[in-house]
Amino acid sequence: MTKSVFKTLLLSASALLLAGALIIFPQEAVKASVRGLDMWWKVVFPSLLPFFIASEMLIGFGVVKFVGILLEPFMRPIFRVPGAGGFVLAMGMASGFPAGAKLTARLRQEKQLTSLEATRLVSFTNSSNPLFICGAVAVGFFHNPHLGILLALAHYLGNLSVGIIMRFYGGSSVIDSPSKKGLPSFKEALREMHRYRLSDNRPIGKLLGDAVSSAIQSLLMIGGFIILFSVLNKLLLLMNVTSLFSHLLSLVFPLFHLSTDLSLPFVSGLFEITLGSRLTSDVTSSHLLHQTIITSFILGFSGFSVQAQVASILAETDIKFLPFFIARILHGCFAMMITILLWRPLHSYITSYNPSVPTSTNETFGWMSEYWHVCITYGPLLTIGFLLLYVWLLFKNLRRAL
C-alpha cells in the first residue's frame, strides 16, 4: 500500500467516523456548534475585524514598505527576516490568532518575502492578544488580573524565543538578502512607501471595499474552524477518546510534579485554547503554579483549531506548515519554562491580589474585562452589520461584472 493510498483511506475513515458520531450524538453536536458560533460572533469577529481591515489598508497604502525599511537593521540580524516582519509581529501580537499567518501569506503573495523567510516569520508572529490573555483568561477564568502579567510575559517571551530558534531554519548555506550598511534613511522609506502606493493604483473607496471583503472572508473561514473544532472536541469527549488520552497523561504528569486532575483540561486545550484554559482554571484542587504552567503551554501551542486556520491560510502559498507546527510545540515548552522561572519573583505579587482593594493594576486590567464584556454584549450586532455589508459588496461586484 502506497503512502498516498493510505492517506486516502485514513482521511475517508476519519470523515466517516465524524459523520457517524454526528448521527449518534446529534443534540450534543448542535450544542457544541452553538457554543463555537457564540464565541465567534460575540468575540472573535468584532475583536479581529478592525485589525484585519486596518492591516489590509496599511499594506495598500505602502506603510508596510515604510516600516520594513526602518526595521530592516533590527529584524534581519535577529530573526533573519526582512524589516516588514516587524509590522507582522506587532499586528500579530496586538490582534491575536491567526493575524500573523494572514499577513505573512499576504506579503509572500506580493513577493515581499521569500518562501524561507515567510516560513520563519509565520512561526513566531502568531500569538494570543493581550485582551484574551489578561481579560478572558486571567480576569474571566482565574479571577486574578495579576496573573495576566505572568501569562503575558511567558507567552510573548516564549514567542520571541521561538523566533530566535527559527532563524536557523534553512541552514547556514541559505543566502539571505544583504542588509544595507548603516541606518536606513527616513526619506528613502517615505519614497518607497509613496512608490508602492502609486503602483497599487486603487482608489481609496476600492481599497477600503477590498479590505472589508478580504477581512470578512478570512473571519468566515475562521468561524467555520472554530465551530468545527468545538463540535469535534465535544464528540471526542463523548466517545471517551479525550478521557483515554487524559488517563495516559495522568501517568506522566506525576513525573513532573503536576496534578493528574489537569490531564483532561490539557487534552481539551490541545484542541481549543478557550475551553482548555477555562477547564484548567476550574481545577481548584491543583496548585496555582501548576494551573499556570498548563495554561501557558495551551496558549503557546494555540490548539489544533488555530493551527487548522493557519494551515488553511498557508495552503494558498508555498509556505510550509510543518515548521509552524513544530514552532507551536516549542512555544508551549518555552512558555512553560519561563512561567516556572518567573513564578518565584512574581509569586507575592500574584497572590497579593485582593478584589476588594482597588489598585492601579486592577484598573489597568479592569478596562480589558469591561471591553471583553462589551464584545460579548454588542459583538453580535457588529457581526450582523458587517455581514450585511459584505453581502451588499458582493451584490455590487456581481452587478458590475454583469
UniProtKB/TrEMBL annotation:
Pfam families xrefs: Gate
Protein name: Sporulation protein
Bilayer-spanning residue ranges: 48-71, 83-101, 121-142, 149-169, 211-229, 236-256, 293-314, 321-343, 371-395
UniProt cross-references to InterPro entries, sorted A to Z: Gate_dom, Spore_IM_YlbJ
Keyword Transmembrane helix among record annotations: yes
Domain of life, source organism: Bacteria
Lipoprotein in keyword set: no
This protein's UniProt keywords: Membrane, Transmembrane, Transmembrane helix
Cross-referenced NCBIfam families: spore_ylbJ (TIGR02871)
Residues in Nucleoside transporter/FeoB GTPase Gate domain copies: 42-135
